[in-house]
Specification:
- It comes from Actinacidiphila glaucinigra.
- Keywords: Membrane, Transmembrane, Transmembrane helix.
- This is Integral membrane protein.
- The chain has helices at about 5-25, 35-65, 80-90, 100-120, 125-155.
- It is mainly alpha-helical.
- Helix 1 (about 5-25) runs parallel beside helix 3, helix 2 (about 35-65) packs antiparallel against helix 5 (about 125-155) and helix 4 crosses helix 5.
Length: about 160
């Protein structure tokens, strides 16, 4: 993976995290800036890792579907495939359109299906299914972790009874 692709995936992760954190910070005007910045950086790293794992997870699913392992390496991110993820992250703001956000992710997934089909030798529709299952699975895993972190951080410490 080239440096340019890593930078694009990092920016896509930060913009996706900003789409989730900024509305929260707006609703709570007293949040410390260091907490917002830390949440933005941590969330950006997690989202970037999920984006980077998406084609690898899809390739693993495709290998499970095949009876023989593929000859070539799995698909990798290229700059033209990763750039739309930044726009998808920016569109993650709830007021700007979740439907447009979803359409853009479907477009990026369709772009990943071609290289996956070529690398594994399966049909395009099967590759698109693997990409979709991988994307949904990773998205659900991140959402579960996000909700767990929110639940843990929302519990207030109890006062000791004297």
């Amino acid at each position: 993976m080239s440096i340019a692709v890593m930078i694009l995936l990092g920016l896509a992760g930060v913009s996706e995290a900003a789409g989730r954190i900024v509305p929260l910070a707006v609703r709570r005007p007293g949040m410390p800036r260091s907490l917002v910045a830390g949440s933005l950086l941590g969330g950006g790293l997690v989202e970037s890792a999920v984006f980077a794992l998406w084609p690898l997870t899809a390739a693993t699913l495709a290998e499970l579907a095949l009876s023989a392992p593929p000859q070539g390496a799995g698909p990798v991110w290229t700059a033209d495939l990763a750039a739309p993820l930044m726009l998808a992250g920016i569109l993650a703001f709830p007021w700007l359109g979740p439907f447009l956000h979803l359409v853009l992710f479907v477009g990026v997934g369709a772009g990943l299906a071609g290289p996956l089909a070529t690398a594994t030798g399966i049909g395009w529709w099967d590759a698109a299914g693997c990409v979709a299952v991988a994307g949904v699975g990773l998205g659900l895993a991140v959402e579960a972790v996000r909700r767990l972190v929110i639940r843990i951080s929302a519990t207030e410490p109890r006062e000791a009874i004297a």
